[in-house]
Structure formats: structure tokens, C-alpha cells
Design a protein that fits this description.
ten-stranded mixed sheet; 355 residues; Rossmann fold; 9 helices; Glucose Oxidase, domain 1
Length: 355
């Protein structure tokens, strides 16, 4: 028996059952194709401002352990699934998927044909959506979805960055991370290469970063439109050429903007753990990805940046680099949590300051 409703800005109304917290939630509806890794995906700060829909029909079958969290909790605004497993089976499980959602106060609607909705998003692009629990008023859900701001109108980084500068780890190399919503596994991958890691809040001034004497700076992943992260763009502009700068996902876009390039919104984005990319030498890697914006290849003329990787599905830019400026960035996620490990060597380049 349905007790909840989701309305899309195009007028689509779908009914389902509430399996999480109760309430009214709006956001940009996006989909991910990964089969596993719901803990990692939902706790990824890059999903702030979005309602995450899983195309895989059963979510929660191995429960929730907390070991794979990429932040301190669920960052997606709400969740849409075909079926939320009630009886998980895994020796590390501490909570069921449903219990986790309720504990975090997150709305989730199940019983939805997620694959049909995915086909709609692939055809028309991402859409604003609203979920209302304990109501079947679809017209109200559609109205609220249409009133919700477009994601490009929202500044989301300040909601997911760290509150202050902190240092963890020990080693001969000092690596700085500008935290725009950094995933924990990015930090872990730097730490396991025996480095002292300095994590800076998103509003840190370029002078503070330079004065910290880090050997390299990594611009992290993050949510929303990169053009809204104005301080991060300023940091790239003022620091470039002084110390090596690297970027992952959102950070790749920030670097491109900081050096004079441009970005644009993708129709429905790349979200999943099986995205093929090819480097400039012809090597193909399978990568984990989560982004709704991309770098405009034609805007890079005159920036000094060259395209180092391309997406084999649609030809979009997946990496930029410039040895003279000491810059290298990738659109995909080399920390692969969840996902393949083909591109993990990117962290070796950061620690060695290689290009």
C-alpha cells in the first residue's frame, strides 16, 4: 500500500512507500548504476543537494557497517530505490539499510520503477524532484519540485567542508588538501603513502596555503556547480606555478576554471563504477565517477592545459595537465571507493610531485 509520493518538475508523479524518516525533501534527482557501495555513495559529500536513485533493484542486502563511510553521515538529500532489503546478511553489518536511514533522518521512497525513471533522466536530463511521505498529493510534490532552486543556483561547498585546518599523519612529504567535500578514502590514499596531510577549509586564503609550506596541493571533490566555489578558483589562480596543484573530480573543474577554462552542465552526468577512460598514450582504464558538470575542451585554448584523459562513452574531458605550470587533474575518482583500482597510481604522482 503506497503512502508516499514523488513529483518531478516535468509533471511526472510516482507513488511508493516510505522506508526512512518522514518529511518533505526536494533536490536534483540523479541516478547511479553501481551494484554495490551504497554506504560509500550516500556518504559522499558530492551528493549534497541531490536525491540519489539507485538503478540496481535491491539496495541494503549486506547491511550497514559504517566502515566504508566517506564522511560523517549521509549527504544525499533523499534516496529512491526499487527495494530496500529488510534482512541483510553480512558479518560486519550493524544496521539494516532502513534503520540507517531513520537514524540519519533521511527520507527514502521504495517500490519505484527506478529503471523507468532512469530512462526518463537519460532522455530529458536531470530533473528537480520532491518526495513527500505520508501523502499521496502528487500535484503538491510537482509544485514544490518546480519551486526548488536549480543546482547551479546553490552554494553547497560550505555545507560539507571541514570547519578548520587540521593535520594528520606523519612523513617527509607535506600534502595539502583543499576540502570542498573531500571523501575519506582520498585522505586515506594519501596517508598510506606516509605523508603529513594538511586539510584546509574551503574558505582558506591562498596565502595561508602557501605559507604552510606544503609540497603539493590537492583540490578535492565536492558538490554542485564548480563556478560557485569562488574561493577555490581564486586559490588556483594565485597559487599556480608556486607549488604543484592536483585535482580530483570537482577539483579538476576548479583547476580548469582557475586557469581560464570553462565548465558546463552535463545532461544527466556520470555516476557509477564502470566508466571507461583513455589517456593520451592510448591506455584504457575503468573508473569510478560521480559528476554532473564537465570541462569544455574548446575553452582550454590559451590556458596552457592539455587534455590528458577522455571518456570513451561520450568523449568528454576526463583530465587536464600542464607540466610547466605543475598542474595535473582527473575527473574520475582514483581512490575508487567503491570501484576499480585502475587509476590509484594517481596518488603516487601527487606524493612524488610528478606530472
Amino acid at each position: 500500500m503506497y503512502n508516499s509520493v514523488m513529483g518531478l518538475e516535468d509533471g511526472t508523479i510516482v507513488y511508493g512507500c516510505s522506508v526512512g524518516a518522514e518529511g518533505v525533501v526536494c533536490g536534483e534527482l540523479v541516478f547511479t548504476t553501481q551494484f554495490t557501495g551504497y554506504e560509500e555513495a550516500l556518504t559522499d559529500p558530492s551528493y549534497k543537494g541531490q536525491i540519489l536513485m539507485f538503478t540496481y533493484p535491491l539496495i541494503g542486502n549486506y547491511g550497514v557497517s559504517g566502515r566504508k563511510f566517506q564522511s560523517d553521515g549521509i549527504k544525499a538529500e533523499a534516496v529512491v530505490v526499487r527495494e530496500a532489503c529488510q534482512s541483510p546478511s553480512h558479518y560486519t553489518s550493524q544496521l539494516t539499510f532502513r534503520e540507517w536511514l531513520k537514524k540519519e533522518g533521511k527520507v527514502c521512497i521504495e517500490g519505484v520503477d527506478t529503471r523507468e525513471l532512469t530512462i526518463k533522466l537519460r532522455s530529458y536530463g536531470t530533473l528537480r524532484a520532491c518526495i513527500i511521505t505520508n501523502s499521496l498529493d502528487g500535484e503538491e510534490a510537482v509544485k514544490l519540485a518546480r519551486r526548488h532552486p536549480m543546482i547551479s543556483e546553490l552554494e553547497l561547498v560550505s555545507d560539507v567542508t571541514c570547519p578548520e585546518h587540521y593535520v594528520i599523519g606523519k612523513g617527509d612529504k607535506k600534502i595539502g588538501i583543499l576540502d570542498l567535500g573531500v571523501k575519506r578514502n582520498i585522505i586515506t590514499n594519501v596517508l598510506k603513502r606516509e605523508c603529513e596531510v594538511h586539510v584546509f577549509p574551503a574558505d582558506t586564503s591562498p596565502d595561508v596555503i602557501v605559507e604552510s609550506e606544503v609540497d603539493a596541493l590537492l583540490i578535492s571533490n565536492g558538490p554542485g556547480d564548480p563556478k560557485r566555489a569562488k574561493n577555490a578558483i581564486r586559490c588556483v589562480k594565485e597559487i599556480v606555478g608556486q607549488i604543484p596543484i592536483y585535482g580530483i573530480c570537482f577539483g579538476h573543474q576548479i583547476i580548469s576554471l582557475g586557469l581560464g577554462g570553462d565548465t558546463y552542465k552535463l545532461k544527466f552526468g556520470h555516476r557509477g563504477a564502470n566508466q571507461p577512460v583513455r589517456d593520451s598514450d592510448g591506455k584504457v582504464m575503468i573508473t569510478s565517477q560521480n559528476h554532473g558538470f564537465a570541462v569544455d575542451e574548446f575553452s582550454l585554448d590559451g590556458t596552457g592545459l592539455g587534455v590528458s584523459y577522455v571518456n570513451l562513452n561520450d568523449g568528454t574531458v576526463e583530465g587536464v595537465e600542464c607540466r610547466e605550470l605543475m598542474v595535473k587533474a582527473v575527473q574520475f575518482h582514483p581512490e575508487a571507493s567503491p570501484g576499480p583500482h585502475d587509476s590509484e597510481a594517481f596518488f603516487d604522482k601527487i606524493v612524488r610531485c610528478e606530472f
